[in-house]
Amino acid sequence: MANSDPIHVGVLFSTSGTTATIERSQAFATFFAIGEINAAGGINGRELVPIYYDPQGIPKQYQAFAERMIRDDCVNVIFGCYMSSTRKAVIPVVEKWRRLLLYPTPYEGFEFSPHVIYTGAAPNQNSAQLADYMTRHYGARIYLIGSDYIYPYESNRIMSDFILEVPGGKKLAERYVPLDASEKDFIGIVKDIKAKAPDFVFSTVVGKATRMLYQAYADIGIDASKTPIASLTTCEAEIAEMGLRIAAGHITSAPYFQSIASEHNQACLARFHQQFGEEIEPNMCWEAAYFQTHLFAEAMREAGDDAYDALLPHLLGREYHALQGKIAINPANHHTRLNPRLGRVNQEGNFDIIAESAPSGVEPDPYLVTHTGEEWNLLQRPPEALYG
Fold this sequence. Notes:
The protein is α/β, with parallel strands linked by helices. It folds into two domains: 191 residues, Response regulator (Rossmann fold), CATH 3.40.50.2300; 184 residues, 3-Layer(aba) Sandwich (Rossmann fold), CATH 3.40.50.2300. Helix content is 39%, strand content 19%. The strands form three sheets. It has a seven-stranded mixed β-sheet with strand order 7-6-8-9-10-14-15, sandwiched between helices. The N and C termini lie far apart (41 Å).
């Protein structure tokens, strides 16, 4: 007799705390995908049931809830984590229990766990493209600012290396603010930026502090069209919070923007907004959370089981037509082939896509061993045909 028991999966994103805006979008993308999977008959007739806890952005709580999901809720697969500090708190748990974490967030690279599938961008899929574009179009004198945790420190190290390889490349300053930064934390920093006059600012500020940085930048009168903030972390969710006057002209590197013109993307956005309203802004982390849930479902349909040893071979090497374009899990490093893009915020608060990779995408190189610019095509106004 076929197994008809529900399949419990862990959903571990914060809907309160400093990074709640982005993590809430990741949680709801996961719930949205689970709803679609169940509406289509589930996984071999079995309902997918999310087990959700709110860790409030606190690494120890991610660890405790991951343990609870596995031990008490009998979960084999967890979708979760935004900040690198929280991912690193969960990895020992999934490794100890031989479970799997699917992680839908761009991160600093230089990591591999056989118990993690990394579906966000590695540095060769966002930092490399951003450094290339910004130094070509604005210059190589850079001011770096980030939130005070692992990802910004490592991303700034990587970006510094890229910049210093460019003739005339120079790091003017590197500053950090607390995760719970206040408005006053940015006053001295933007004054220093204005005094040092970099060609561009590289930001890995996250959470509520993002709006504060861009607000202070605008208030002191720095012209974004001449000296933009270039970011790996500022997406549609933060743009909606800060408003058009503050956001326009700034640049973000990401595999996904809402403005991708494909019918596949626009139809999915319409379904999401119809179900959840306009409060949640889809973004790069939302899209990765969405496609990784469908990717898991496809793999489990083939495997017939979500136990680690049964499921993993069906995930590795798997391709999927995501909203950003075709993606695939690299079996050698558990990271994902993605479609890097650069977007500039326009006067309507949307991202104009100003550059993107070829349709074949860019393979993940989390240790930056073989990355080259040859994989990256600079295309002004890319044609819709590229989106498939």
